[in-house]
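Researcher: I'd like a structural prediction for the single chain below. Treat it as a standalone chain; there are no partners to consider.
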Amino acid sequence: MLTCQRDQFDMPREICFFNVAAFSPLPKRVQDVAHAAVKRKAQPWLLDADIIPIVNERARKAAAQLIQAEPADVALVSSVGYGVATAGKVLDIPRGSRVLVLANDHTAPVLEWMSRAKAGGFTVETVERPAGASWTEAILDAIDRPGAAPLALVSISNVHWSDGGIVDLDTVVPAIKRLGAALLIDATHAIGMMDFDVGRWDPDFVCFPTYKWLLGPYGRAFVYVAKRHQGGVPLEQTSLGRKGVDAAAPVYFADTSYLDDARRFDMGERDHFISMDMAATAMEMVYEWGPANLGAYAADLTAKLARHLADLPGIALLPAENRTPHLLCLGFPKGMPADLPDRLSQADVFVAPRLGRLRVSPHIYNDETDVIRFADVMRRSLD
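Model: Treating it as a single chain, here is the predicted structure.
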């Protein structure tokens, strides 16, 4: 069992930060890497010629480890939205078919298909979660809805960003595969906090960033592309996505054919070795701790939070079996007091209001002292 690692972060004891699902703090080790990388950029004539490919491949390997994939199946991108847009260019959504998305899911796995639907002649169907039901049940009902158009794609987060509900991929994926539909997973709130195995579920695309649960910088993200789609055309046309376009070579456009793996989908200007070095370091730390171990550590804290808050009136939680263990979203059936987030932040307690809920997201730097502090401040704020 992991123990609190607060000393590895620049976090004063009086700060109660339960908001990693919005923006993580950077571990001291990642900060040190950033400072060293900035110094290298300040004197670029001293840069090792191989530093950029070395850092890029290190980050690619670190991301691949977290989803049990091969590095060659992972592309370096700037955001989850970029990864979804890549899928949008690669996937052929037939006319007359439908794409499933979750109600109030984050914009990334939703808006791409909304923007393409009219021209593409397909429909985007929003899956609602009935009160008391799980997202898993709601998706299964939508997949087999009588009279529905053929299913082409399910584009979902497997952990819902605003209510903390979890999708049981072991149950949902066979139903999707049975109909021959594609699967895109926005794994933003899963990677780094639970075991994730692309070999187990065989998704078509998986996208995730580093700036939340992976304790890394903003602007660095990764997309897994299943081998069956690695012949597709990338979102951007870059020299590094081609086999033989090299400014240092005697012939510039020696071979313009694409690379044979997911590296062809790398974003342009990917060579930001400062933030890529930070991302690689952060992901390696998460891998060393173990995603399942981190998830269990956070789950212990959310369970204690739920017990402390159980007797507070006006708060509702999803049943434990329907929510992800590492994320606790407090519902307010009669409405959340508008100034509640401000009251909490004034007491140095930091959480995120999301769609009428209060999202509480602990990590390895939190401990039971934070749990008690949060519960006490919540009680006083609601009183």
